Structures are given as C-alpha cells and as structure tokens.
Give the backbone structure.
Amino acid sequence: MDIHSETIFDKIIAGEIPCHKVYEDEHVLVFLDIGPISPGHTLVIPKERKAFLHLLSDQAAEAVGRVLPRLCRAVMAATGAEAYNILQNNGSEAHQVVMHVHFHIIPRFGSRGLGIGWDTGSLESRDAEVLLEKMHAALAESAEGE
C-alpha cells in the first residue's frame, strides 16, 4: 500500500508552516519537535513523501541514515545529554500520529525522555526457523525486483 495523504510535515517541507530548522539538505529536513518529550527533542524527516519506513526508497533511507548520527551528536552537544533514544513508528497501532516517515531523537535526562516498557517473550527454535525461511524468501524477492 503506497498511499500518502498530505500531512503537516508536507506543509513544513514546502515552507507553508514554519519550523525551528536544525538541518536541511536535498533529501532530509530536521527540526525541533513543538511538543517535546524532553529538551532537544528533534525530528528527522525525509523529503520523500511516504507514510511508512518500508515504503521509503533506498536513496531517501540512505540520506536519513547518513545524517542521523551527526544530528545525534549535535543534540547531545547542545543539550548536554549523555543518553538518548531514536524512535520511529509505523502505523497507528504502533503509535504513529503523523503519517509521514520520521525519526525522533529524544534526549534522556533522568526521568525526562522516552519511557519504554519492554514486555519480552521467548523465541523457540522451530518458530525462528519458520520466520527465517519467510524473511529470506522476502529478501530474495525484494532483490529480484531491484
């Protein structure tokens, strides 16, 4: 499914809505979140209009991946944070609110920052084998389509 309805991020990219711009290049726009979880909470968005990460082109994904470490360093330097989370949600069930791919850089200061619950399960060998077979097949199919 490759549906992208206009979002607030499209309007920010177009310059129709102002933002506190941290960085911009041909493929990526980075700005401060206006509803920060902690000081320095920053959003990294590709300019390519896709709702979900799995729909993003390799070129757009490479552009985000290239600048993400540099931006983490800038957030840490500016805020004095020694810890941070990178958050990226896909789909409303995964808590995605703006349906445009975006990464959050969220500095952690004691209890301020992203709180995460981690309800672990277990991986049985038989289940792992089934998953691996399906994932390998999907990767092979994806490589054939390139």
In short: Residues 58-79 form the longest helix (22 residues). Helices lie at 8-13, 58-79, 125-144. The first strand starts at residue 21 and ends at 24. Residues 23 and 30 are 5 Å apart (CA to CA).
